[in-house]
Amino acid sequence: MGHMKKILALIAFSFLFASNASAREGLVDLTSNSVSCKGISIYQDGYYKVTGRCDGLTYPYETTYNKYVLWGKTAGRGEMVRIAEIDKGYFSGNIANSFEAMYVTAEKNGLVRKASDKQVLSGKVAAFSFDKSQITTAPTTATTIPTTPSTTSKVTTINSSTAGTVIGKIVSSLLVVILVIVGLAIGASLLFRSRGSVSH
User: Are 194 and 99 within one domain?
Assistant: First the structure.
């Protein structure tokens, strides 16, 4: 029985560790009934760079609470660390600590270091999936035009007008070539006649 408890504890620990390890870099998704924030978190140069956009925020939230701030809750100590102020719906900031959850709060000042109790929404980061077996390609579908009498006549008209245009260009080109050849032939014959009349 004791051995079974150890195995279950180990599985639970590895699951929690894996979810925390992968939950800091990925797609940001914070949603409530009326507000939604979407973004991305990337680990680079020793920081998690978090960028995105919110929709549905109202200004002001309450009388003097007219700023919104994005926070990350640290994985180890559970502290709320400021990531960025949300300015006109957009946010972009850094957090050095690994985090397990994200929050948006309404604040009197966008540069505060401690979160107020005016929590607007919360959520987590969905880890990127690099599993190539899950990649799907969109099926190619051929579009067919329904053949009703009206569409058939329209298609025929379009095809005949296009063919007529091409044939017209070919005929006009041939006429120009024929005219040039005829002009050269007449000019050559006149030249030979004038030479023949001079020699007599």
Answer: no
Give residue-wise pLDDT tens across range 161-198: 565 676 777 767 777 778 778 777 777 677 666 666 55
Number of domains in the chain: 2
Neighbours of 33 (CB within 10 A): 7
Residues 6+ apart with CB under 8 A from 154: none
Q: The pTM is what?
A: 0.55
Task: State how far the Cα of 82 lies from the Cα of 99, in Å rounded to an integer.
Answer: 11
Strand partners, 170: none
Is residue 102 domain-shared with residue 180, that is, in the same domain? no
Both 176 and 104 in one domain: the answer is no
Residue 96 lies in a domain: yes
- Dump strand ranges (E) for the chain: 26-31, 36-44, 47-55, 67-74, 80-86, 90-95, 99-107, 119-127
119 & 43 share domain: yes
